[in-house]
Amino acid sequence: MVETAxxxxxxxxxxxxxxxxxxxxxxxxxxxxxxxxxxxxxDLYEVGGSWGTHEMRDLARLANRHEPDLxxxxxxxxxxxxxxxxxxYHALLRRSIASGLHASAWDTGDTEAGLRHRARGARLYMTAxxxxxxxxxxxxTNAALATLRHAPELFPVWAPRVLSxxxxxxxxxPDEKRGVTLGMAMTEKQGGxxxxxxTTRAERSSxxxxxxxxxxxxxxxxxxxxxxxxxxxRGGLTCFLMPRILPDGTVNAIRLERLKDKLGNRSNASxxxxxxxxxxxxxxxxGRGIPTIIDMVTxxxxxxxxxxxxxxxxxxxxxxxxxxxxxxxxxxxxxQPLMLRVLSDMALDLAAALxxxxxxxxxxxxxxxxxxxxxxxxxxTPAVKYLVCKTAPAFLAEAMECLGGNGYVEDGPLPRxxxxxxVNAIWEGSGNVMALDVLRAIRRxxxxxxxxxGTIADELGPGSKAAVGVLSAAAQVATEDEGSxxxxxxxxxxTAAAGVLRRDFPPAFADAFIETxxxxxxxxxxxxxxxxxxxxALIDYVAPDIA
Length: 547
Hints:
Elements: H1 27-32, H2 38-51, H3 54-65, E1 69-73, E2 79-84, H4 87-98, H5 116-128, H6 135-148, H7 155-163, E3 182-185, E4 201-204, E5 210-220, E6 226-233, E7 236-243, E8 254-259, E9 270-283, H8 289-325, E10 327-328, E11 331-332, H9 337-366, H10 371-403, H11 414-426, H12 431-444, H13 446-460, H14 464-480, H15 485-504, H16 507-518, H17 535-542
Parallel strand pairs: 3-6
Antiparallel strand pairs: 1-2, 4-5, 5-9, 6-7, 7-9, 8-9, 10-11
Helix pairs in contact: 2-5, 3-4, 5-8, 5-9, 6-7, 6-8, 8-9, 8-10, 8-11, 9-10, 9-15, 9-17, 10-11, 10-12, 10-13, 10-15, 12-13, 12-15, 13-14, 13-15, 14-15, 15-16
């Protein structure tokens, strides 16, 4: 029989990855949550089972294939300023809100007491492996509550609406909805990161509200029920809460001008907006806009790092799965010496990314009662975001290369993961901003660096003196030479990662990480791990063969 295109048999192709429990199949997240109560671990198991299904992966594909659409006017010319989304996007949001991804850090129940940030971080890590676009409103809603605490008259009104586990997509006044989400609107065309350059104006009205006129260059999730906005009041840059619909049912004067054509996720809309006298409540004192909103910014930075770790995990799982099922030159791809070294080297960065993210969540959990943990949260938030978010794009590019041409086509998830990765290094402060924030934390309080170095030394254990000495010297140089702040930031995060790996994971991870990341000059590619380390054991631990 002559073989034709119709009868051609496909062979030596890896099966489609998916249908796995993202918690149960990941020893790293299991180790990071080993001490959690059984009820919390069971919930994480359920979350991992849901987000690992083929159904959820297909919802992610659909939500990104069918982009949001801006409807500025209705058929009669009336302003609408609404964004419509594919049903798959709403399904993703419904699942995440039901699991508390939008606000579980603020719950008051006893189940997750003392580990709310860590439990939520584990959920975020698994959710990000499947779809990141819808995480944007989840992150902003969770973080916004930190800023609303500065408005005692607003927090008790809005917090119960946010804490609801019901997703309500309707365009109605907030007090008529079963649940709400919150966004943020900070940057403008002329300023970007330099929000002090904002020109949007806020004038106080006789009823105590403010009328805000101006623009915002990036407003993600523009269908949120309210936004935290920075504008110039008489007393200086000030933070405001601006609802989409006012309490009397009037649609607020928020004009959606266009949606951004973004590099990364397509499921979540980002808009340019004009405020034509939009009404808003003040949050915090006039002139204190940056200190008021900084708590929100800090929590979004934590999510940037954690979501990046999730993206890395998703890419690594795809790469290892393919390598185990693909034969090249007469044997499995994973058995080829060079591929073995590449994957094991990647496993180290993945372990470090998760370890750092969960360790930072731990610091947020413990900060209220432990000054050393509060110092860790202050100093390490920008450092962890810097390292993890900058590692992810190169990591995912390597994962794509492991699959070859299959990794480059849009039929699979890797192109979407790769396009998604850079935004986390940009959102809420690029690399230079993170390095400067590390310097500010050191300069603001002489004890902060000492306490963090003490924590890192304790976690590294014997032999930590040299590493801590290097960090002390780098900090001294950076305080005198601002241009070297990136060197300090990267070295600080790498050394902290080594400490957490030593504390929380099998010894082989810390040994190999220290040797390849701290004991050698900078290197630009993966596969530099040498034969002294058991590459197969590292790969199999991070991604067990469950086929």
